[in-house]
Amino acid sequence: MANLKSLQERIKSVSSIQQVTKAMKMVAAAKVKKAQDKMEISRPYSKNTQDMICRILPQVSNDNIALVSKRKVSKTALIIITSDRGFAGSFNSSVIRLAEKEIEKLGKDKVQLFCLGKKSSEYFSKRNYNVVQSFYDFWKDMTFDTASDIAETFIAAFKNHEVDEVNVIYNRFKTLASQDLMMEKVLPIDFTEDYNPKDYNYDYEPNKESIVKSLLPKHLKVQMWQQMLESYSSEEAARMIAMDNATENAKEIIKELKLEFNKARQAAITTEMLEIVGGAEALVD
Amino acid sequence: MNKVFSLDIVTPTHSFSFDDVTYVKCPGTEGYFGIMKNHTNSILNLKEGVISVKTGEKEIKFSCSAGIADINSDSTDDIPDKVLLLVENAQELEK
User: Fold this and answer.
1) Measured between alpha carbons, how far apart are the two ends of chain A, in Å?
2) Are B49 and B43 in contact (CB under 8 A)?
3) FRET partner for A122 with CA separation of 20 to 30 A, picked from A170, A243, A270, A277?
4) Which residues of A touch B45 (CB under 8 A)?
5) CA-CA distance, B16 to B52, in Å (whole number)?
6) Interchain pair B30, A49: CB under 8 A
7) Contact B44/A204, CB-based, under 8 Å?
8) Is pLDDT at A193 greater than 80 in this prediction?
9) What sign does the dihedral A148-A114-A109-A165 (CA atoms) show?
10) Residue A162: is its pLDDT beyond 60?
11) Which residues of A touch B41 (CB under 8 A)?
């Protein structure tokens, strides 16, 4: 009978886990939708900023603009975007793996890390990598200001010649079931210049150079914002799929346990019947 | 002649659109300036301040952070004038 009781308890605990994973899946699905809406809203701003830069950049000399000038790369900054929480399949591990590969290629002492999310900052701090700054606990109520602050830190590092190149490693949202692992160079900024003679008839106030200089950080900030949103939607999508799988697995386990439970119950009944019949026969004799 | 133009105030987190604006006052780096239809094509830096938008009788005010104004007007009247204000933050002010 002890077997029956323990089986019953296991069935109960697996079904409560199933309930939790099911709820987590629904929550994740809602968050994906929210993050995607935010991404949609940020698009016009980013597109217009980029267009404007492409139009003005060919008209100014790039030498005076720090954020576009290329220099010899001796120190590289990697911005690694992961989540604060797990339960999202291989979402974090794939980012960390690519980052490690990249660090190995460049040399551990030549890389400065900016970690976003607890997962990457814990992983790299524990292993004595050069983590310059970590940002976490912001995903829950992420605002544009967070992205703007992060962008400002790496812009400052680039301007002060602490790093000569800045790359971002993150998951880009593709579909609910798949993400693209991306590595993008953000600094120095590369632009395909868009030459249009009409732009020369524009009035620029105070002047072209200072307009470009104020546009470039804006572009980087909104780019950071979008990359964070991409990563956030990928995270929640990955969590949704992971939790969906967990729910399915729980269902499977419950089915198996129920079968086992019924077998055990039937066996117990059969033994009891045999005992009764045996006892009755003994009385007749 | 129709004296209205379209205006978009675009931020990374939301945007405001107007189709029939007669006058906009913006905080330029060298002081406030006004935009009406047929303004010269220009791109200007904005500093934080108040943007006032006039549509007909109504006037709507926004507080905004620093940004850029892109004024696009065509001498012909076929293509409507377009003014684009790119700011990091804009909020409608209560009356």
Assistant:
1) 31
2) no
3) A243
4) 205-206, 210-211, 214
5) 13
6) no
7) yes
8) no
9) negative
10) yes
11) 201-203
| Higher per-residue confidence, A194 vs A184 | A184
Q: Does A49 touch chain B (CB under 8 A)?
A: yes
Tell me the ipTM for this assembly: 0.86
Which of A16-30, A181-195, A213-227 is the least confident region?
A: A181-195
Residue at token pair 């016009």: A44
A1 compared with A52, residue with greater pLDDT: A52
Contact with chain B for residue A148, Cβ under 8 A: yes
The answer to whether the Cβ–Cβ distance between A203 and B40 falls below 8 Å is yes
SS3 A222: helix
Mean pLDDT of A192-196: 66
For residues A218, A223, A224 and A225, what is the CA-based torsion angle, rounded to 10 degrees? Answer: 90
Q: Residue A89's pLDDT is what?
A: 79
Can you give the pTM of this predicted structure? 0.84
Q: How far apart are CA A263 and CA A42, in angstroms?
A: 59
Q: For B11, which of A38, A45, A202 is closest by C-beta distance?
A: A45
Backbone torsions φ then ψ of A16, nearest 5 degrees: -75, -35
More confident residue, A98 or A193: A98
Within 10 angstroms of residue A284's Cβ, the number of other Cβ atoms is 5
Q: In what order do the strands lie in the sheet with A165-175?
A: A131-135, A111-116, A76-81, A165-175, A178-187
A48 touches chain B (CB under 8 A): yes
